[in-house]
Every structure is written in structure tokens, then in C-alpha cells.
Amino acid sequence: MTDETATPRRRLSAAMRQGEQVTPLELFFDLVFVLAITQCTQLMSNDPTWGGLGKGLLVLGVLWWSWVGYAWLTSVVDPEDDAVRGVMFAAMAGLLVVALCVPKSFGDLGLTFALAYGVVRAAHIGLFVIASRDDPDLRRSVLGLAGSTAVGVALLAGASFLDGLAQGALWGLALALDMAGPYFIGAEGWKLVPSHFAERHGLILIIALGESIVAIGVGVGGDLSFAQGAAAVIGMGLAAALWWLYFDVVATVAARRLERAEVGREQNEMARDSYSYLHFPMVAGIVLVALGLKKTLAGVEDPLKVVPAFALLGGLAAYLLGHVLFRYRHIHTINTRRTLSALVLLALVPLAGEVPALAIVAIATALVWTLIVYETRSYGESRIRVRHADSGRETAS
For residues 213 and 234, what is the distance between their CA atoms, to the nearest angstrom? Predict the structure, then answer.
């Protein structure tokens, strides 16, 4: 092949990706995250105690932060580049091993989990280093992230040699230091495509909601009774309510605000705070709800035990409070309706131990849908403008 006909080799750079939509490769990557979320639910289901709940949330936090890193990465590099594809496939293999280790991540597979997790994060940092070679500001931020990542992975490896409270404390420290890294590094050097970034986080919420539906199927098990069928339908209604709360107007308004923020520090800090940080309580809440639904379907006529009851109702509360903080970060006002609804849900936890699980799921679902109906009516004209993509006007919703 002559030089004239040869295809020039593409070179990774810090230039923004060309497309704004999430690519098929990114969706393919997220499928492995689906397994990881399912494994977190299984970990908590196998040990439905406060300790088991804490372990599941710590693992979910570690997995979330690794996913967040790739969301930022693919807002810089083109995921369809051949070299990027190869590294992404390698990261997916590492993430698959991580997911398979989750049920025993605090036991015999703790070190394997940490090492595989290190591979996933190393692939992420490696691509960022290559992408930042022509951008000193981005390179400085990436090197800072590499430091906090290395500390986090090392602490997880060290935790594998411990057990009990000491092990959990080291996991918590590893997660806290890793997640705090970008906050102390500063936001000036990062790059992102706002519409892509917002869409990516919306899609991951849908993936998490899918786990709640999977939990319904797993919870039924063998034969389907009438009560289980009713609980499954109500559980599906609850998942639909969680979808509505985010995608009706919240996702659209937030995405527009991110796009309109001044490029650079302001936009990056908004993306970091409202998406990387504040979407975690939403995802964690959905996973806890999935656990509660799974336990409900396993015994619809019996009261829920305290931990599954807290998972169901506390998960819903965490999801709503995540929305409250999300709104506050954007427009510095408190959504009192969702705050009060979260408090009412938490107040229902003692009742869950006195009535059948089917009844408490029905009560929680009715409460959330009542909130939706009230909000939909109160938004009025502003909701219609938002849903018809009238981006030229602001809304207080």
C-alpha cells in the first residue's frame, strides 16, 4: 500500500469528542455494570443485616466511582477510536472479574477484587494520560486523580487482610479518599461534553431501575401466587414512579443548566457535584429498593424484617433526598414536597414490621404516586414548556 492510499493513524488527544450522543460501546460497557449492581443486591440479600447492608453500599460506592471515571473519560476521548475500544474491552474484562468477586469481596476474594479493580482504574487513568498529552491543565488533573486512585486501590488491597470492623473502616476510608480526590484537585483542568455527560448519567439510572425489575423476578422464584403477582405489579408501578420523578422534568432542566454553565471551572464543578456525587444516593436508593422488593416477593404475606424494611423505605427516601440535593446544587432552593415525602417514608419503617410486606409496598407506592400527581399539577404550564424542549425559557421546577 502506498503512502498516498494509506489511512493515517489516529492519535488520541485532549480534543473534545465529536458526537454528543452516548455511543453503542458505552452502552456495551454499562452492561457489565448491570451485573455488578445485581451482585451488590445479592450480597446484601445473602446477609440481610446492618453489617451486610453497609458492605453492599461500600462495594456499590467503589463500583460507582469507577463508572464515574469512565463517564468523564468518554466525554474527552472518542470511544469509537480503535485504540480506545481495545482498552475499554480490557477494562470490561477487569470489571467483570470485579463483579464476580462482589459476593465474597469482604472474604476470600477480597484481594482479587482489589487487584481487578486496580486494573479497571489503571486502564482509565492510562487513557486519560494519553488524551492529556497536549493539554497541561488536563494532565495536571489526571496525575492528581492517579494519586488518589492509587491510594484507594492500595487501601482496598490492605483491607483484604483484615476482617470485621477494621476491614469495613478501611473500605470506607478508601472510598472516601478516592472520591474526595477530584474535589481537592480542583475542577479547572477537566473537559466534558455537557449533553453527553447528562445523558450518560440518565441511562445509568435506567440501568439501576432495571435491577429493581430483575429483583422482582428473582424474588418470585418458583410458582407465582396471586399475592406475589399483585406485589410484582405494584413493584413495577413503584419502579415506574422512580423513573417519572427523574425523567419527567428533572433530567431535562438539569441537562440544560449544565449546558448553559460557563465552560471551565463552573461547568466542571456542576458536573462533578450534581452528577458524579449526587447521583450516587439516587443509584444507591434504587438498589436498596430492589433489595426490599426482592425480600417482599419472597414472603408477601409476612411483615418485612427491620433491615429489608429500611432498605425499601430508606432506599426510597435516599432517592428523593438525592433529588432534593440535586435541585439545591442547581438553583439553591429546597424541594419541600420531596423532603417531606422522604421523612414520611422513613417514619413508616416501624409500621413495616407490623403489616404484611405487600401492604407496605402498596402504601409506599401510593405515597410516591401521590407526590407525582401533586407535583405534576403544581408545575402546570412550566412542565409543558420543559417537556416540549422550550430551552429558551427557564423554569423554577
Answer: 11
- How many angstroms separate the CA atoms of 30 and 24, rounded? 10
| Angstrom distance (rounded) from CA 271 to CA 321 | 18
State the cell numbers at 309: 424494611
Question: In Å, how far are 257, 299, 319, 378, 392 from 396, measured between CA atoms?
Answer: 12, 43, 21, 11, 14
> What is the percentage of the chain residues whose pLDDT exceeds 70?
92
- State residue 389 phi and psi, 5-degree precision: 60, 40
Q: Are residues 342 and 234 in the same domain?
A: yes
Q: Residue 241: name the closest of 343, 323, 121 by CA.
A: 323
pLDDT for the residue numbered 383:
81
Residue 5 maps to a domain: no
CB contact set of 36 (below 8 Å; sequence gap of 6+): 63, 95, 98, 99, 102
- Asked whether residue 122 carries a pLDDT value surpassing 50, the answer given is yes
- In angstroms, what CA-CA distances link 87 with 124, 130, 180? 8, 12, 26
Q: Residues 323-336: pLDDT tens digits?
A: 999 999 988 899 99
| Number of domains into which the chain is organized | 2
The whole model's pTM is what? Answer: 0.91
Q: Is residue 394 part of a domain?
A: no
Predicted confidence at residue 396, as pLDDT, reads: 42
- Residue 222's Cβ-count burial label (10 Å; 0-12, 13-18, 19+) is exposed
Residue 11: all three cell numbers together: 492519535
The verdict on 341 and 290 lying in the same domain is yes
Same domain, yes or no: 30 and 121: yes
What is the span of the domain harbouring residue 60? 14-191
Is 358 part of any domain? yes
Q: Cell 486494573 identifies what position?
A: 119
162 and 236 housed in the same domain: no
To which H or E segment does residue 152 belong? helix 136-159
